[in-house]
Amino acid sequence: MNRGCFVHSCKREHGARPWRALLLLGRGPDEAQWLSGDQLEYVRYLWDDPYTQLAVVFVGGEGCHAALRREPVLSSRIFIWQRFTRLTGDEVLQAIPLYHPIWADADPDDITFADSHAAHGNFRNWARLTAHTQTAMERTGWARVDQEVLRWVFSRLGSGA
Description:
Elements: H1 3-14, E1 19-25, H2 37-48, E2 52-58, H3 64-69, H4 72-75, H5 89-99, H6 101-104, H7 108-119, H8 123-140, H9 147-157
Parallel strand pairs: 1-2
Helix pairs in contact: 5-7, 7-8, 7-9, 8-9
């Protein structure tokens, strides 16, 4: 669908009243730096349309900032540039027990063990580790995360400890 058809169909659906959307952009979970100039121009086109009230979040990896800055008409509309870094050990101990119920009653030493061997302060790694840990606990009947469970999970992830 070309940009005119998309905007026209939204206007037809929503009539004269503005429509709102949140766009999370990237070709993958964090790859906005790979969007083409035409794709970025299309976002700018939607952004400028008086019938839209968009919130756009560009999520990207290395090179995202530079790629978006090459599009001055778009980059001038960016309200804030936010860089995310790995969680520190203290941040891991604060965030991970709140992140998923399997970590809520885990021993802090086991969370630190998991972070140092597999997650490395990265939420994507924590998501993968959590999914595998939950599966391991369901299949084996383990009631609580401990280093034995984690070693089993590491063996499946290829990050043996």
